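Job type: complex structure
Entries:
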Amino acid sequence: MRKYILFPFFLFIFFSGTTYAFDQININFKPAPNTPYFIGVPEFNIDAEEFPTVVLNIKSNHSGMARLFWANNIDPQMNEPKSIPFFIDRSDDYKAYVFNAKSQNPYWSGFVSQLLIFPDGGSAGIEIGPSDASISKFTTNIQSGWREFWGPRGRLVIGSTINTMASVVLFGQPITAYLYWLIVMTGLGYTGYLTNKWFSSKKKEPFDLLWQKIGQGVILAILLCWCFLEASNMFSLWLVAKQDAVFIGKKLEEKRILANTGDFYKFMLFCQKNIPLKSRIDTRIPPMYNDIKATYYLYPRKVTSEAEYLVVYDLKPDANSLNKFAPWQTFRPGAMILKRGKS
Amino acid sequence: MIILVIAVPFILGLFVLSALLKNNAGEFHFTEKIGLALMLGLGTLTVLMFLLGKTGILLSLTNILITVALLAAILAVYISINKTFCLTVPEIKGFNFKGFSKLDWLLITLISLKVIFVLFSALVKPVVDIDAFQFYSIVAKGIFYDGSFTLPYLQHFMGDKPLLPYLTQGWALVGLGRDNDALIKIFSPLLFTCWLAIFFSSLRRYYPRTPSLFFTFLAGSFPFIVYHATTAYADVPITVYYGTASIYLFLYMKEFILGNKNRSGALLLVAASLLGITIWTKVAATVLAGINITVLAAFLWFNRSRVERAFWQMIAVSGMIFFFFSGPWLFTGHFGTIGIVISSLFGSTPDPASSTAAAVTQPGNKFEMILTIFSRKLFLYADWHLLWALVVGVLVFFYRRVFSQPLIFLLAIIVLDLLSLFVQFSSGETFRWLLDGTLFDRLAMNSVPAALFLCAEAILPGFIPGSKESSPATSSRASRGNKKGS
């Protein structure tokens, strides 16, 4: 009798142990030296098909946006297409951030060899505890979808939205796709109900009237879904307003410093101070967009190849320029104003 | 000084609107006239600044104010002869919020929140979008510092682009008296607000307050338009001017069929003025104006038996007003732009340097690709929420109303607008911009106001018992209601 009890018990232990061993791969993150991001250690080899879920345990003293990047055997570079943006919440304890990476991004494929977490404001104040890649479960999928829906994709300006505006996504699909299904199913259900009622009634109303009633139901469903989208959109606008709030109470020059990257606008102020208003300038500024911005900020100084001054910012002037211009005012190494004529 | 920047075009617009509407001002809603005044004033100011600049007169604050005052004085003489002004004291005093339900207040709150957001997001930060830096705002700085937009240095920032965005931003700096690239964007959110006010009033003419407010709430909900209303680009100006011009053209047709001669005439004049100003917004406006004129011609042809001699006079006056606004641009060396636009629609081939364009030059591939991109952009992106699904729903379920006069002509405008995009992207050099995703959404934006108005006009009579737009009695009842209050 005992063996009948013990055998299944040992069998259970064996299989659950095996399952446990292959259910998840533990990942640790540490800040990369002199960089604003965290990198997974040691390097691993995650089968993306088998382990589509990534659970990160993060503690942060501030909220903000971050990105999870990965490298795989197909593309060993960390790049934007192979990333998932997400919001980090302020929390005193470690909080689990669950991503069904496969459903959120189709590039979660092949063998993932490295993970990287890049918080927008740098790694200061953020700690990442033991994390893992695991198999998908119903509960983790729900958690992942929830975080994805309220996440930055389709809500915050990522890059530029001047040409198009991405939809909020759920399991990698635009939310509108689900709403269309809902509208179609509602429409079909309502059509079935009204048609059945129409066929079963003895005194039939004109078909046009029936069609109009169906139409009203479908239109109502579309308008309700539209209101849902707008409610979601108002949350996105609230996030944008919070982003814009950093400009409140600042002077215009301070706002411009904030709106530009690095010390670019401070350098523009330096140029405005040193280069006379009506002079002709040329620029050596990496494209894009600081070269275009410099032309705007430095107006009424006009950009021309026949210039008296050469504005240089993080781009080494060519030999020809160095023959014509000599260093004149230095903002910092790599950012300076040159003046025509050899010194 | 920001008050001056807004007040000058607004007051000028009140004079222009009074001259246009004459004794028909009572047919227009109070909020509608406020919105129209700013839009017409801004357009007129653009024309005046353009003429000043072209004649070599410095675009200083004093010179602009003197010119505006002169035009206002001339219009004042005309208005005093006709003994009418578009706003009356009883109308201003009579503006109230009596009889508003809780749902009305909720909708007003949501619409107001959107307007506040747009104003906040536009004005709290400096210019950040790249086309504003490299095209519009730098020329605005040129106008501010050098008092002219005709300097050779500025020409390559302008190209053959129409000047409304440049000159209105230039006026903002001149009026402010300082280089402020946060307040330079003041007119984008204000135009957005005007568009909501006009959209509401146009519906309120015929339908109860709550559904009119609901569709205005929808009008203010498009994420892409809301975003553009916070920038210094040209896409909100063209959308607002063209959208309202199309709506007024439709309202003219509607009133014409209802037999309200005076009201339809006034609506046509407003439509012609707005369409004329549209020409100043973007190069694409010439095609859009051509579409509206073609649809108007088709409407007159189909209704030729009803057109009396007086109506032809009205058409002629409207044509003159259209050219009064658009002529200074078209006849100063830009008439050829129409040819360039048409050749870009039909004549050119994709840029061979573009590898992606070259990869899909097979006609079959191209057609399929364009259809795929069109449908994805219209239905699956956040730009328009569910507008195009609503349009499809309306076409399927309310086909009787949509495919009959006058709504079919508004549908024709929308279809031709979209068709022009299709032709442009399939055979013109702009195909590569469809592939890189930089242009389609911004061009499709122009059709959005008319598309939503079409939906409202098709849906509301079916949902609201007794609100049949084809009944002249209902129309005049609505009109009386408008005069009483908001």
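Summary: Chain B has one domain: 2-484. Confidence is low (pLDDT under 50) at residues 349-355, 468-486 of chain B.
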